[in-house]
Each structure stands twice: as C-alpha cells, then as structure tokens.
C-alpha cells in the first residue's frame, strides 16, 4: 500500500519536471517584462536538436549543452524581433510555437524516413547517463527516499535551477535590476541599466532552460519519435499558466509543479489507485479516462480564471509585462 | 562666470513638429535657474536631452566647459547630471532602498551587502531628509516619492540637478520644505534647474530665469531685476493682431449651467475644483488655462464620459448629471475634443469618413443593417459645407491632413444640430487658413443661437474669438472676464494663479443673474 503512494509521488516528479523547466524559464523571461508564448515551440526545438546531438555523440552532457544553445537561439530570435524590432510579443511568441513544433515534426519525419532512420535511445550510453540513480543514504529514507532521491540527473538540475533563480531574484543586484525592468523599464533606464542587454540575456537564458525541459521529455519518452504526437504535448502551454499559479516565483513554481503534477499523474495512476483501495477509491474507475486526460488542462483553466478574478494573486506580476520598451515614447 | 551647463543651438523635432528650435541656455555653477514657459513650450524636451532620454537633432552641449555627447541616461549620470522627472521614475513594488540600489555602481553584485544603507542614510541626514528606507513606494505619499527621487540623484553623486515641475503635486508646506532642501543643495555647491510655471515660486527660489515660448528660447533674466508682470509677458508673448470675426448676438437665457462642479482625474486627484459657469445661446465662452489644469476632465464631465464628485449640471432646466453620453447627446450637447495626438478621441483613424459619421448615429438606422447610403449623403454634405479636401467619402480619415480631420470631427458634431457645442483645441496644429475655416464654422453656429464652450491654447485667438473667457488654474476658477475689457497679461496672471477675481465686489463669477438654479439648489 505504501508502495503505491511512493510510486505515485515518484511519478509526479518524473512526469512533471519538464513543467518546472518550462515555468522557471518563462518566469525569467517574464521578469524582464516580456511575455513569451513560444514555450511549447522553444521546448520542442530544444528537445529534438538536443536529443539528436546527444544520440550522435552518445553523451548526455553534449545533449544538454546543444539543447540549451538551440533553444537559446530561439530566444535570441524572440529578443531580436520584440526588443530590437519592437514586434508584438504575443504574435511573435505564437509564431515561435508554430515554428518550433513544425520544426520538430519536419526533422523527425525526415529522419524517420531516411535510410539510417531515427536514432534509438535504448542501450546507448546516453540512455545509461539519463537513467535514474539512487542518492546514497537519502534514498534510504522510508517512503520519501525512493520517491524524492532516485531520479535522473536532469530532475535534480531542474530543482537546482529553480532554487538558484529564486536566490538570483531575491539576493543579487542584477536580479534587482531585472525585476526593475519588468516593473518599470523607464525607471531602470533612467538609472543607467542597459534595458535591451538585460532583456536579451534573460530571454536567451530563459529559453535555454525551457529547452532542457524539452530534452528531458524526449529522453523520458524513450527517445522514440512518433509521427503523430509531439514530445512536448502541451506542457509548454501549461507552463505559461503555472507561471501565474506560482505568482512569478521560482520557489512557488516547485510547489505548482507538484500540484499540477498530481492531477497529471492521476491520469496514469488512477487505475492502480482504484485497484489498491477498492473500498475508498474504487469509484475512480467509473470516471472515463478521457476526463483524466483533460484534467490538467481543466485545472489550468480554473487557475487562470481564479487568478484573474483576484488581483492579490498576481502581486508578483511584472507591471510592464507584454509592452515593448522604447525610450523616446511619450 | 563659470558654467556647469551650456547649451548651444539645440534643436529637436518629433516628426514634423519642432519641440525645440535653436536653443541657447546656460547654468552657472552653484545657482538655481528657473526654466519658465507654458506647457508645450519645450521645457521638458530640452531637459530630457540633458538626462539622455532624447538626443538633439543638432546643437552642442557643454558640461563644465567641455563638449559632451549624452547618448543614454547612463552617460548623463556619469557626467553628474540627475533629473527628477515630473512623472516619477520609481518602481512601485520596491522599497525606497531597493529603488536607490538599482542605480548604485561599484557596490558588488549582492544586495544588502557592503554598507549601502549606511551611505544612503548619511546622505539623507546631510540634507535633512526624513525617509523610511524600507517603505514600499506604492504606499508612499506623493511628497515622499519626490523626496526619494531627490535623495536618489544625490546618492548617485549628481552635481547638476534638474527638477521637472516638482511643486505641481505638493502642498504649500511641502513646497516650503522642498525649497529649503534646494537652498541647502545650493550651499553644498550643486547647480539646479527647476522647471515651473508658477511665477511666485520662480521669484522665491531662483537666481536667474530662462524663458521658453513655443519651443524657442526667449531670454534669461536675473530674478532680482525682474517682476511677475515682465515674466508673464516673456512667457505668453506680446499681443498679436488677429483678424478674427466676432459676431455679436442677442443672448438668450443660460442654456447650460454648471454649479460647484468637482471632478477627479484618472489618478484620483481633484482635477476640477468647484467650478461655476454658464453658457448662453449665441455666446462663445473661452476656457483659458495652462495645459492640464482640468480642461479635459471638465469636457468629459459635461459629455457624460466622467463621473462627477459633486455639483450640478443643468441643461435647459433639466439636470444632466448621471445621464449616459448618448442621452446627453440627444439632449443637444455635443462635444468635439482634439487631443494632443489629434486622432485619439472621437474619430476612428482607419475608417472612412462615412463610417465615422455612422459611429455617432448608428442607432438611427432601422433593423440590424447599417444605413450606409444616408450616411454617405451626410458625409458628402459635411465635405461640401466645410470644404474638406478628400478624394472621396470612403477615404480613411487618417489619410486626410490634420485640418481636414478636424473639419470632419467638427462637421459631425454640428450635423446633429446641438444647442450647446463643446470644442477643445479645435485648431490644434492647424495652419492659419485652416484655423480660420474652423473659426468661421464656430461663428456660424453661434449665429444660429448655439452656445459654445471653446477650450483653447492661444490667448490671442481666444481674445479675438470669444465673448467671455473663463480662466482656470489647477482646476480652480480664477475668474470670468469679458474679452473686450481685459488684456493678455491679465489673463496670463490669472492662468498662473497670481490673480484671482472670482469674488470681486461681493459678486461671484460664473453664476448667471437669471440662473435657473435657485439659491437653495445651488447650496445643496
């Protein structure tokens, strides 16, 4: 019985860490005052490019670096369009999503139909490197140990990124300047902060972080390309909603990931739960599986509605979000 | 004399509009220079070139005798220039300390490290500021925010400090305190430029006064050797002879009476403060005042677009308070407001003249379809009558020249046959000929017995065109004068708040003798 809960918690983390990557990446971008709706596309590009590079070199490290750079380049494109050319952020973000997902299918289909075929993950060194390993001692803690401390390296990296970002915003001067830009770019500019440079840097880094999340999803799905289903599978969109749920705090993004992850995991685990506790949870089997599939998105919808109703829940929202900054605007 | 700043031949244009034309200005070391001029005379634009927000199209800037290029606010800060903007450049969510911390250089990358707080507290103590560094800006009163802005530039080691209308938002006591700080700063060797259009303050605080008018440099005078009257003349200019017709009509009973009207602006501050006035049929009442004195809020209140806090608005014996804009329109009150960007209010720029006509009376067409045919005929009528130059009735409004856009707007407003016409800045940005066409249109309406409220900028025009002129300053009525018995200088003094004639000889200005509002109602 305990095993079911441990497995449930374990699965929450395994399946939903990409949300943490997407959310923290988006938080970094939104804190600079830019709204990037291209999370889905950025993750898709980071996933496919990173995976192929990793498969080629058979190294997880290379996969991560290339994934970060590839999606960072997507961030560079977004920055160039919205910061330098002052393009509309919403349209640019949507374009990037469309482009990124299409890029994923294009590369995937082309490779799958080629003579060499789509590179397989199973049995490679890349597969071994991305496998879960148990942290000595910590993983021996009863109940929680197995669930929290026996994961792949990318799971821990995601958590570390979230914590570092939280410290960066809270404790450092560049973090303060970044938040000032998101709140009132005019004020930051008048104090000599290079607004364009800060926006470029943080949009690129934020996009890179999203890319790692995409790579993780690819590896977690065994690296198999299916012509009909994108690895990212809407997680990019949920990440954007999670930013609001987390009130723009990387620390709360951790919590948000777990809450969303709970409903997400229910989709996979509801049958197991019902089987283990026929008396109390047996009714779960009566609910159609489609409902569980839709649940994360329904929750997203509810979060967006409730947080829009109350202004208190949006206290972390950067005031200048979505608006391009042009110094000579009057 | 040694100069902290010298500006030579500075010119700056925004599109076709020249905001600064060939300006020369100098600031001596350790002096307080007042920069005087009406709104729109280019003061803020000029100062923004010193703070690195704008770059001059031509001309040169000298700091301490050395020619410099200021390409960004960072450059400006490095040269020791600090500007306190009229609209504070503060991050509302941050504390005072965090706001100051953003701009402090060379103190490491970690917050609260080093003794940043100590340094700020020392500076505050030196100039006698009383400020709570941990207070969040959003919770601060306006005067606290201003103190923070000044402390900020002092902490960054600015030697030249520019204050853009610092007194506009302060009470009398707070202004006294501010002036004490400025004098203290002067003692410490700082050079200060203060932008204002309140003459009494200029006289009180400055050593010299530089005057701008319509983007041009007029003169710099030593404060001790001048007086308020001379300064007003410099500011508004000498009377220009204009050949504008002013037909005299038989005046009817008051059509629109406004009593004790109080309106708040978007920020929640009082914009119109207990104003009384009335308009008779066949009369044109001018509204004079420095820009932002409550003109916009007044117009919006009458048109029903803005909630009023207090007071009464009676149109032909019926109160229009709380009526919807559409109801007010049907009542016969029509408004045309030309904002600074001209197209903002009233017309949809990308739509054709015909479509813009429909916008106002869409509800007159029967059924669910728009009656385009009638609208097109009406558009053609307006084009013919007001001589609008346009290829066709279907040309998008934004393709027309400014004068023609304003004719379309005015034409649409008078088409519905109002008996009170409110028009704000109808000749804004127009050349002489187009302006005269607009004056003629207004005079024609006046001859028909329409009461007109004319909110204007140019005093010469208002003196020639309007029968009476109501002067407001910071939302308060300064008096109503007859155009034939007043001078531009008198109005200028009233606009700057120096003179107030509302309660002269026991009679209150702005209340009609044959008012439809009884005394009891007036008091209520």
Kindly list the characteristics that best describe this protein.
heterodimer; A: 330 residues; ABC transporter involved in vitamin B12 uptake, BtuC; 2 strands; 71% helix; B: Rossmann fold; Rossmann fold; 22 strands
Main beta sheet of chain A, described?
2 strands, antiparallel
Mean pLDDT of chain B: 83
Number of domains of chain B: 2
Shape of chain B: globular
What is the tally of helical segments of chain B?
17
- State the CATH class of the largest domain in chain B: Alpha Beta
Q: Tell me which CATH architecture of the largest domain in chain B applies here.
A: 3-Layer(aba) Sandwich
CATH topology of chain A: ABC transporter involved in vitamin B12 uptake, BtuC
Major beta sheet of chain B, specifics? 6 strands, mixed
Give the domain tally of chain A.
1
Order of helices and strands of chain A: HHHHHEHEHHHHHHHH
CATH architecture of chain A: Orthogonal Bundle
Q: How many DSSP-defined strands of chain A? A: 2
What oligomeric state do these chains adopt?
Answer: heterodimer
Distance between the termini of chain B: 61 Å
Q: How are the strands of the largest sheet of chain B arranged?
A: 6-7-8-3-9-10
- Whole-angstrom Rg of chain B: 26 Å
């Amino acid at each position: 019985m305990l095993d079911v809960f441990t497995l449930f918690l374990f699965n929450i983390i395994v399946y939903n860490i990409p949300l943490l990557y997407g959310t923290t990446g988006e938080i970094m971008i939104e804190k600079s005052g830019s709204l990037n709706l291209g999370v889905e596309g950025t993750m898709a590009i980071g996933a496919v490019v990173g995976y192929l590079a990793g498969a080629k070199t058979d190294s997880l490290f290379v996969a991560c670096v290339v994934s970060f750079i590839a999606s960072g380049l997507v961030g560079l494109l977004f920055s160039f369009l919205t910061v330098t050319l002052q393009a509309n952020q919403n349209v640019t973000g949507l374009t990037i999503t469309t482009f990124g997902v299409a890029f994923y299918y294009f590369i995937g289909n082309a490779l799958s139909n080629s003579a060499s075929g789509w590179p397989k993950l199973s049995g490679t060194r890349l597969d071994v490197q991305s496998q879960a390993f148990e942290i000595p001692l910590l993983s021996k803690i009863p109940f929680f140990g197995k669930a929290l401390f026996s994961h792949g390296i990318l799971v821990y990296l995601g958590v570390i990124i979230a914590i570092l970002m939280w410290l960066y915003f809270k404790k450092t001067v560049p973090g303060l300047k970044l938040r000032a830009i998101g709140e009132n770019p005019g004020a930051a500019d008048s104090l000599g902060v290079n607004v364009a440079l800060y926006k470029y840097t943080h949009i690129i880094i934020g996009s890179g972080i999203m890319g790692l999340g995409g790579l993780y999803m690819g590896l977690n799905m065994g690296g198999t390309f299916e012509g009909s289903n994108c690895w990212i599978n809407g997680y990019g969109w949920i990440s954007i909603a999670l930013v609001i749920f987390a009130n723009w705090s990387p620390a709360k993004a951790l919590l948000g990931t777990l809450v969303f992850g709970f409903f997400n995991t229910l989709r996979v685990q509801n049958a197991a739960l019902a089987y283990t506790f026929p008396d109390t949870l047996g009714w779960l089997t009566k609910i159609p599986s489609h409902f569980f599939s839709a649940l994360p998105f329904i929750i997203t919808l509810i979060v967006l509605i409730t947080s829009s109703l109350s202004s208190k829940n949006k206290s972390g929202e950067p005031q200048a979000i979505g608006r391009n900054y042009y110094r000579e605007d009057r | 004399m040694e100069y902290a700043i010298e500006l030579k031949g500075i010119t700056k244009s925004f599109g076709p509009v020249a905001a600064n034309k060939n300006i020369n200005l100098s600031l001596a070391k350790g002096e307080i220079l007042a920069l005087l001029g009406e709104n729109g005379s280019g003061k803020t634009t000029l100062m923004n070139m010193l703070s690195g927000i704008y770059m001059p199209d031509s001309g040169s800037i000298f700091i301490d005798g050395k020619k410099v290029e200021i390409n960004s606010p960072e450059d400006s800060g490095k040269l020791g220039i600090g500007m306190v903007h009229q609209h504070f450049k503060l991050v509302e969510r941050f504390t005072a300390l965090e706001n100051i911390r953003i701009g402090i250089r060379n103190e490491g990358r970690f917050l609260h490290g080093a003794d940043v707080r100590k340094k700020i507290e020392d500076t505050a103590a030196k100039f006698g500021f009383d400020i709570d560094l941990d207070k969040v800006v959003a919770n601060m009163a306006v005067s606290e925010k201003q103190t923070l802005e000044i402390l900020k530039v002092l902490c960054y080691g600015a030697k030249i400090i520019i204050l853009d209308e610092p007194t506009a938002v302060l009470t009398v006591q707070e202004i006294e305190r501010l002036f004490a700080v400025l004098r203290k700063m002067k003692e410490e060797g700082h050079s200060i430029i203060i932008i204002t259009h309140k003459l009494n303050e200029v006289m009180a605080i400055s050593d010299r006064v530089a005057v701008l008018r319509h983007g041009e440099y007029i003169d710099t005078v030593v404060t001790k050797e001048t007086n308020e009257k001379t300064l007003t003349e410099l500011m508004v200019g000498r009377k220009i002879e204009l050949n504008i017709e002013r037909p005299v009509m038989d005046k009817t009973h008051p059509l629109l009476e406004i009593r004790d009207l109080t309106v708040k602006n978007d920020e929640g501050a009082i914009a119109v403060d207990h104003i009384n006035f009335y308009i008779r049929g066949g009369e044109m009442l001018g509204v004079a005042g420095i820009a932002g004195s409550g003109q916009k809020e007044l117009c919006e209140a009458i048109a029903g677009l803005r909630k009023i806090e207090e007071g009464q608005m009676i149109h032909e014996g019926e109160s229009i308070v709380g009526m919807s804009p559409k109801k007010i329109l049907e009542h016969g009150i029509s408004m045309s407001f030309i904002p600074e960007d001209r197209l903002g209010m009233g017309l949809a720029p990308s739509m054709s003249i015909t479509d813009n006509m429909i916008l106002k009376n869409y509800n007159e067409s029967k059924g669910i379809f728009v009656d385009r045919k009638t609208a097109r005929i009406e558009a053609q009528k307006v084009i013919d009558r007001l001589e609008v130059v346009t290829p066709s009735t279907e040309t998008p409004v934004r393709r027309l020249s400014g004068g023609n856009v304003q004719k379309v707007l005015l034409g649409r407003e008078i088409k519905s046959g109002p008996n009170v016409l409110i028009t704000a800045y109808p000749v804004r940005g127009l050349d002489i000929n187009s302006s005269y066409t607009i004056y003629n249109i207004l005079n024609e309406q006046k001859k028909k017995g329409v009461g007109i409220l004319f909110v204007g900028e140019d005093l010469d025009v208002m003196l020639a065109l309007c029968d009476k002129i109501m002067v407001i300053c910071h939302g308060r009525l300064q008096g109503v004068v007859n155009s034939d018995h007043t001078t531009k200088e008198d109005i200028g003094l009233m606009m700057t708040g120096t003179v107030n004639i509302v309660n002269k000889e026991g009679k209150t200005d702005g209340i009609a003798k044959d008012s439809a509002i009884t005394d009891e109602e007036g008091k209520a």
